Amino acid sequence: MKRRKFLKNSAAGSAGLISASLVVSCKQESNILPTNQKNLKSIKPIVICTWDFHNASAKAWEVLKDGGSSLDAVEQGVRIEEADINNQTVGIGGRPDRDGNVTLDACIMDKDGNCGAVLCMQNIAHPVTVARKVMEDTPHVMLAGKGAEHFAYEKGFKKTNLLTEKSKAEWQEWKKTSQYKPIINIENHDTIGMLAIDSNGDISGACTTSGMAYKIGGRVGDSPIIGAGLFVDNEVGGATATGVGEEVVRTVGSFLIVELMRQGKSPQEACEEGVKRIIEKNKDKVDFQIGFIAVNKQGETGGYCIHPGFSYRVYSENGHINHPSAAYIKT
Ligand code: SD4
User: Fold this and answer.
1) FRET pair for 15, CA 20 to 30 Å: which of 159, 168, 231, 331?
2) Phi and psi for 200 in degrees, rounded to 5?
3) pLDDT in tens, 7-52
């Protein structure tokens, strides 16, 4: 049964059991904003994304300014990077795995906690839109590999060669040594994670990537994993990540950051704590990059990373600004 229908049916079925007063009291219970955030004037609409993605954030802003939903904004926004052949970490033009296959990961999450993801999918240019279809048209959250690809064909997506001449030439060069040693801010640069709040105050997020260059075939990172590469809770805020996904998965980074905001931390403080958890797990060996960004329900934003070089872009009534992120390691 389609999820919407299922929800509708089950809601209708149980409606008689729930008294109006209980619904009201649940609503009150869920007003869990920390007291230090309750009186702030909220900034909305707003969009925030990893790295300096001017065009993607501008596209999302355009959707929001026209009164569109945060879900449409994040999908339309990240699609700009999926289509950009010069972005070698997302969509068409992404760097391949060590066998020369470009495999894409993406996820999307809406204000109601619905989510969809595709993992390790080949030959399809817009994984975020396939992820949205998984969310909206199936009873599932994740589809992987051939299953995801076939699902996309069923939904009318065209088979597309994702390996550009540039990425192919670089891979052939890499094969001469075949050493997997991701370079900080190079091979873990340019995954786009995006969060938006629309004029209704509703939050959504999306994250899309071709993953780590020259990974083992079949490898999946944090980006399509709800809670790791992305998490949204419409009562609290959202967070998303870029960098070496294995480390983000180990700490369920984006979920952690949203939970820290729920407990009263600002987006900036929560991102800093998220990075510190990763540092603690790795002791002195932090020869990799991670960057987190977050937004809370009031439209406050934050970002933090391990090594200098990460930035994030924010678009709101206050301007369209690229923020160099503070880093744990000072140079
Ligand atoms: C991954 N987090 O697959 C992604 C890589 C990334 O910019 O963020 N690249 O682990």
Assistant:
1) 231
2) -80, -10
3) 334 333 333 333 333 333 333 333 444 444 455 578 999 999 999 9
Determine whether 50 is an active site residue: no
Q: 117 - beta bridge partners?
A: 107, 142
The beta strands (E) that lie in 113-245 are given as 115-121, 142-144, 192-197, 203-209, 230-233, 237-243
Task: Please state the atom number of ligand 1 nearest to the C-alpha of residue 219.
Answer: 3
What are the tokens at 204? 């959504």
What span, in angstroms and rounded, lies between the C-alpha atoms of 326 and 46?
Answer: 21
Q: Ligand 1 centroid vs 19 CA: distance in angstroms?
A: 46
Pocket of ligand 1 (CB under 6 A): 89, 188-191, 209, 211-212, 221-223, 242-245
Distance of alpha carbon 179 from alpha carbon 276, whole angstroms = 28
Contact assessment for residue 154 and residue 86, using Cβ atoms and an 8 Å cutoff: no
pTM exceeds 0.85, yes or no? yes
| CA–centroid distance, residue 68 to ligand 1 (Å) | 28
Q: Which of 50, 129, 191, 240 is catalytic?
A: 191
Ligand 1 pocket mutation pick from 191, 216, 288, 305 by most atoms within 8 angstroms of CB: 191
> How far is 189 from 308, CA to CA, in rounded Å?
12
Edge-first strand order for the sheet with 203-209 is 142-144, 115-121, 104-109, 203-209, 192-197, 46-50, 311-316, 319-324
Give the atom of ligand 1 at the shortest distance from the alpha carbon of 190. Answer: 7
